[in-house]
Amino acid sequence: MRGSGDTVVPESVLQAYLLGAVDFETALVLQRRLHYDVAGDRRQAALIICEHEPLITVGRQGSRRHLLLDGPDLQAREWRIRWVNRAGGCWLHLPGQFSIYPIVPLDALGLTIPAYLGALGGVIRAVLADFSVAGRVRVDDAGVWVGSRLLAALGIAVKDGVAYYGACCNVYPALGAYRLVRAHPRAAEPMTSLERERRGPVRPAMLRERLVEHFRDGFGFERVSLFSDHPLLRTTRTADRQLSIAT
Length: 247
Hints:
Blueprint: E1 13-21, H1 24-40, E2 44-51, E3 55-58, H2 71-77, E4 80-83, E5 90-93, E6 97-105, H3 106-109, H4 113-130, E7 137-140, E8 143-146, E9 149-159, E10 162-170, H5 194-198, H6 204-219, E11 223-227, H7 231-246
Parallel strand pairs: 1-2, 1-11, 3-4
Antiparallel strand pairs: 2-6, 3-5, 6-10, 7-8, 8-9, 9-10
Helix pairs in contact: 4-6
């Protein structure tokens, strides 16, 4: 777009990657690649929405004592534990949970870390309201709560002024498993989900659409580019297939 006189003000662009199930390590590599891109051009940002196969990621506020099961139980469930450098506690990732990874330049947006966490929580809160979950919802640095239960946990890392990681939001996972993992030291109750709180099903495609729209509006991006893939993912899948054939 054009500014005053002949000055051209570049558009701020949000690149949204609406993906399906993605291996956690692959998603981390993709975040690092997009972090590199955003750090080099702070007019852009990225948003990854995906799901992970079962695993537990443990952030800086997490601890082994927040896992209410022992080694044999973990092995029986085939849940691996991955320690990560984000803030936040222990996140149990299951199918039916959205992992939401914004890669955004905080300095370009004029945001402190607390302000960014508040705005990110506000995006999720606005999405919940679209699906008739508004009462008893509150946002703090741990996440978005409905009553005494976390529905979406927040946790970010920041490098060179660019934030990554973000949130895990329970849409329709099997909730019984969350009794075995404390998502945050302040969470006395197990996590809940959007479908549980609204007492009805949710269309995942519509939820992704609302997340992108509220993220765009909440952070003031002028344009959104939608993607369902990334070249790095295709490279990773090819490498995995070649390894499978070789073994």
